[in-house]
Amino acid sequence: MQIASKRAAAIDYKLTIDGGIVVDASEKGQPLWYLHGAGNIIPGLERELEGLQKGDTKKVVVPPDQGYGSYDQGKVHAVPRSQFPHGDFSVGETVIATAPDGTEVPARITAADTKTITLDFNHELAGKTLTFEIAVQDVRDATKDELKHGHIHGPGDHHHH
Fold it and tell me: Among 127, 141, 154, 159, which one has the highest count of C-beta atoms within 10 angstroms of its own C-beta?
């Protein structure tokens, strides 16, 4: 069975950037399950997996515009330290900020001094070319419930919402 829209696919993967730096990988024996065609994975990877079947392997290179987007300097903001709760904040730490509309969004601290903390709201892989090494472990038709929810459910049809 081939990977196609409305099918569940399980892949083992290794993701590298910048000439081989490993930034993510599936755990041995724990492939990533996703619903093909539902936007569960980045567009450039999903497109390249179309038509593969169990046992296939593939190296996929995804440019930023098909991954996490270009790096946007406009998403970097210096915020007065007074807007933060008291405490220590370290460069590299991820914090959850509340947007004007009330939604919570993650941001990385990229600089901090006595007056301001600089937050970067770009995805940490924005602007990066992503290289995936893929091994397809399984492909099956998605269940009606998975199609309704737009994602794959775990063993025994367990899921979290």
Answer: 127
